[in-house]
Amino acid sequence: MTQTNKSLLVCDTCGNQAQHLRRDVVDEDYNALSRPPMWNCDECYEEKRRRRQGRKAGQ
Length: 59
Prior knowledge:
Elements: E1 2-3, E2 9-10, E3 17-18, E4 26-27, E5 30-31, H1 42-52
Antiparallel strand pairs: 1-2, 2-3, 4-5
């Protein structure tokens, strides 16, 4: 997570700027406590969550 100014952050996945970022650390059948943090914009977060849960885009 990179902060470019007081209101915008940079998504670690796509590089887009966002006012807030998200990260899943522990979820059903998912544990990222030992992994380096990856902060995501809403779009990247939802896409990564869909892939992890085995769903296609739009589901």
